[in-house]
Amino acid sequence: ADVGELVFLSPAEAFVTRIKLAVAGGFALSVPVLLFQIARFLSPLLSPAARRTAFALIPVAVLLFAVGATFAYTVLLPFALRFLLSFAGPEMVPMLSVAAYIRFVLWLVFPLGVIFQLPIVVTFLARLGIIDSRSMSRRRKYAVLGIFIVSAILTPADVFSQFLMAVPLLVLYEVSIVIARVAGRSRAGDGGLEKV
User: Which of 19, 25, 29 is nearest to 98 (CA)?
Assistant: First the structure.
């Protein structure tokens, strides 16, 4: 949907918005470093094999974040804008401020990038023996409910946008069950936690 020209409603709004965009861009670029530091922090708890897996999964986590953010920006955002701007009329003309628009975009893009880390989180939890594929399968109906609740919170009120977000999350959950099964078998082979 074409949002038209963005306006700013206060003298500082354009300047502050550029700073927010710079911070958001810096955060996106720092994701690999953040993940590396998290892996280093957790490495004393892991066996050598699990430690190697943790560092090897960093590029996968970055890729998943990029895929989630790109999906939100290229697929979800246009549908959400089209739905919300469809309420415009002769008595209500849309005039979006740059701060409100950027806030709306970031609220869709970044959370979905983070949510796409689900397979990575499941891999670690399964390697640590906290979850397993059987318990995830048994709780599938609760996961589906949770996914639709998260989708309703992160998207506008239209059902189609909610469905667009929920479908990839449901696929990710099913993929995570398979990952948990594989990671559980690997843990049985090498022990997930470092024995002290």
Answer: 19
